[in-house]
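JOB MANIFEST
job_type = single_chain_structure
chain_count = 1
residues = 330
[input]
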Amino acid sequence: MSETLDEANEARQRIDELVSRARGLEVRDYALAGVVVLLLIIGVFVSDRFLTLSNMETVLKQASVVGVISMGMTFVIVTAGIDLSVGAMLAAASVAGGTLAEALSGIDGLAFIVGAIAFGILLGAVNATAITFGRVVPFIATLAMFLAARGIALWMSDQQPISVARMDAVRWFGNGDLLGIPVPILVFLLVTIAAWVLLNRTAYGRYVVAVGGNREAARISGIRVNRIVFSVYVLSGLCTGIAAVLLSGRLASASPVAGNLLELDAIAAVVIGGTSLAGGKGTIVGTTLGVLTFALIFNLLNLLNLPVEIQQIVKGAIIVAAVVLQRRDD
């Protein structure tokens, strides 16, 4: 009995160390904030259109979709998992919302929003079930969902986009404003705040970090590991459903090919923000700054009229540099 108590106490001490380490990322956050400021300064000299209100709104609106998905991705990666399916899930959630809206034409806007978010959660739960109960490696489970969700989107839509141009509620989420602030930016801000509170100010966030840092120690200390792992993939699905509403509203259509490679943008933002791919260490502030860093860089490249292939090369270089810096810190 005493040995069991000793093991539990030792496990709790390990978890405390992991949580302290996960929250001790302020220096990197400040450094990345400096990068964002530097990009703003560079942008002023590169183009007189860069630091205008309309361009900054455009940057943030475009970043909102990746940003919302990145919040869910942060929780997944903190548990040492990965979700390769969010881009395809976004397309499937969008089409599911559009299909439900067409069936309930009297309340089409509300039906789209509810349908998209609910379908995102459902697909996230399928990932979670395969990983926690089927014991499938997250990479394989979410890769399978990546293929399946894209197929579902193409099948449900008959390979054609579904117009949401007449759905005022959906269009409002994509292009509307509230008190002069674009709604997508407000949604991104609210999701970010909620994610920060959840990860840093709740027992749940502590458990997420503990599971990612040392799964066996977490189990010994009484944390229900499977429930935590299950929940982060459902959370990722929820964020994907919200992002589907934002993107469909902005584009005025639910496209079965939407969100192509969006998972890579989300993973990249989380990684350069300082969340460890090995798990047990993560920061919502860092993820937010990672999203903004990518958004500003590609906006600058677009203003300079540089080709897409150059943008992809830059993105790859940034990811490699971020991982190298992570390994030096570890």
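[summary]
The first helix runs from residue 2 to 23.
The mean pLDDT is 87.
exit_status = 0
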